[in-house]
């Protein structure tokens, strides 16, 4: 989990190579080739008219959290094992997509939540296997490379 958090910090600090691919008035999505796997990294950025704490409540990876209520790509989120007050092993399930062409998925990740001195909050995760969470027969087991979210306070 700590390695995933550090990797996300490296992505955040390195502005090189990001290319815009989609943008609305609220969100901009960029991508760049990954140096870890044969594919691309993606990041979405936006400024929300809310306090960082309210935004964090919507995105933080906790059981019973708000993400399953607003994110149509997250069907369920459960904590498999709590390692500490900031680290846990979690299982996320996603619904089928594209008129059921894409099968429902499950992801098992070790997740860390951090808060930095400047008020930035971060969740970072990466794939892990866990004996209490064997693959389910009706779901495709997905694999996450280091991924996560930052909630960064902005002036005003």
From TrEMBL:
One of its GO terms (molecular function) is cholesterol binding. It comes from the Eukaryota. Residues 1-156 form the START domain. GO terms for biological process: cholesterol import. Keywords: Lipid transport, Lipid-binding, Transport. The keyword Repeat does not apply. It holds the Pfam family START. May be involved in the intracellular transport of sterols or other lipids. May bind cholesterol or other sterols. This is STAR5 protein. It comes from Leiothrix lutea. The lineage of its organism: Eukaryota, Metazoa, Chordata, Craniata, Vertebrata.
């Amino acid at each position: 989990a700590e390695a995933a958090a550090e990797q996300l910090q490296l992505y955040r600090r390195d502005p090189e190579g990001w290319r815009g691919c989609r943008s609305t008035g609220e969100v901009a999505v960029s991508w760049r080739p990954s140096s870890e796997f044969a594919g691309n990294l993606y990041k979405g950025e936006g400024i929300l008219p809310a306090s960082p704490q309210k935004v964090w409540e919507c995105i933080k990876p906790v059981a019973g959290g708000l993400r399953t209520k607003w994110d149509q790509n997250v069907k369920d989120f459960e904590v498999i094992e709590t390692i500490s007050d900031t680290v846990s092993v979690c299982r996320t399930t996603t619904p089928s997509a594209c008129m059921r062409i894409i099968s429902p998925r499950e992801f098992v990740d070790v997740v860390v939540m951090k808060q930095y001195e400047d008020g930035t909050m971060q969740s970072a995760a990466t794939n892990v296997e866990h004996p209490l969470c064997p693959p389910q027969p009706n779901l495709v087991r997905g694999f996450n490379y280091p991924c996560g979210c930052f909630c960064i306070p902005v002036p005003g």
